[in-house]
Amino acid sequence: MADLRDRLRAALNQPARMPPAPRDESVTALRDLSGLGGTWFTSPHGPGYVIESVYEAGWAHGDVVLHRALSLDPARLAGQVREPRLAAMNPRDFLYIDTETTGLGGAGAMVFLAGTARFDGTLLRLRQYVLPSPEFEGGLLGGLAEDLQSAGALVSYNGKSFDLPMLETRYILSRTRPSFRQLPHLDLLHPNRRLFRGQFDSHRLVRLEVELLGFERESDCPSSEVPERYFRFQRTGDPTWILPVLRHNAWDVLSLVALAAHLAAVCDGEAGALQAARAAEYAGDLAGALSHSAAALAANPGRVERVEALERTARCAARMERYDDAAAAWRELLADPRNRRVGPYVELARLLERRLRDIPGALAVSEEGLALVARGLLRPGPGNAETGLPALRKRHERLTARHARLLAAAARPRRARSLEAAAS
User: Fold this and answer.
1) 94-101 and 111-120 strand pairing
2) How many angstroms separate the CA atoms of 412 and 391, rounded?
3) Which stretches within 67-157 are classed as H helix?
4) Residue 357, by phi and psi: left (phi above 0), alpha (psi -120 to 50) or beta?
5) Counting Cβ atoms within 10 Å, is residue 378 exposed (0-12), middle (13-18) or buried (19+)?
């Protein structure tokens, strides 16, 4: 068979294949990266390069001191991502992770830098696994796997959609089973986007650092430059190309630690009553949501915040079967002359009809809403929605019919008594 292959190559003018050159696995013989300040290490999948930095727990990242992440209540965070396994975790079990890649996806994109951080006593240890060239990917993945295997939970920013799927692809392509699939995951993007919706025009990490953490990067490497800087470093071996990327990645990881602490503070009501009310309702803490909504209303908020606080009060009170309190919140919202939405009228009418059995009251609210719509003072919803004009008219017709039946039922006994009196 080998002779046949040689004859075919000769006929096609192809050079004979040479055996691969032996690779020196000794880390002492690998390329000099001392300018990056890291060390070579060995793993079951080959050699790798890691840079380790240590931060005291008293280190301040913007306005947030890192040790606050050690005293957070994981149960608070568990409710914000609806991951009950997080509640049983110790904050020291959290592994904060962020990656830098050569592209946004696909089999050709590689993770060339993976930063992880975890508390070790009173210290935060930051490890950055660097890929000097593609041949060392096994070392990067092998070193990172050791951190992932010892973690109790992962903390990232958009990691569920980007970082972890990218890492999973690289592990699968290297024929290695990913070790993090079953770990609880706190992706900070989603709760922060939900709790602070409408406040910022962007929820990119660098924007939240400024708005929530009081941290502003100086001379940062833009994300758009990251791949090109890595390619230049790979071609030249000049560490000055990748040093700004290392700093960029380190800031990303430190921001994860600070954001986790800040999120816990939001849930406790330390960063705004309205945000705390949003967090409590999402986590199913209706009593807490009511309490924080009341605090938000007491702070004399702007119109938009006041409307949201009243609506949340009404919803949570109704779910707690405190229907009178819910009706009072809806009525307070309707009393606002600036209200231009028909939704509160629909909600109050439904509450009066179905829960409080106040058909006349429900009919009055329905009639008021329809009258304001006819005068152009309320905006109905789309035609097929329950706030649309057809649904409003249908509700009014049903309430009118029910009210008429109630009046007829109440009149029948009086008529019978009148006939009996006349007969006697």
Assistant:
1) antiparallel
2) 32
3) 74-81, 137-149
4) left
5) buried
The Cα–Cα gap between 103 and 110 comes to 7
Of 291, 363, 299, nearest to 325 (Cα)? 291
* Cα–Cα distance measured from residue 341 to residue 330, given in angstroms and rounded to the nearest whole number: 12
List CB contacts of 159: < 8 A, sequence separation 6 or more.
97, 98, 185, 187
284: left (phi over 0), alpha (psi -120 to 50) or beta: left
Nearest to 271 by CA among 375, 192, 201, 326: 192
Residue 23 has a CB neighbour count (10 Å cut-off) of 11
DSSP state of 8: H
H-only helix segments in 123-272: 137-149, 164-173, 189-195, 205-208, 226-236, 243-267
How many C-beta atoms lie closer than 10 Å to residue 161's C-beta?
Answer: 12
Could you please report the per-residue DSSP string of 333-390?
HHT-TT--BSHHHHHHHHHHHHTS--HHHHHHHHHHHHHHHHTTSSB---TTSTTSHH
The two tokens of residue 26 are 């000794």
Nearest residue to 193 via CA among 231, 222, 158, 240: 158
Q: What is the full per-residue pLDDT of the chain (424 aa) written as tens digits?
A: 667 766 766 666 555 555 554 555 555 567 778 889 999 999 988 999 999 999 999 999 999 999 999 999 999 999 999 999 999 999 999 999 999 999 877 667 899 999 999 999 999 999 999 999 999 999 999 999 999 999 999 999 999 999 999 999 999 999 988 878 899 999 999 999 999 998 999 999 999 999 999 999 988 998 889 999 999 999 988 899 999 999 999 999 999 999 999 999 999 998 889 999 999 999 999 999 999 999 999 998 999 999 999 999 999 999 999 999 999 999 999 998 888 889 999 999 999 999 999 999 999 999 999 999 999 999 899 988 999 999 999 999 999 999 999 999 888 766 555 656 665 5
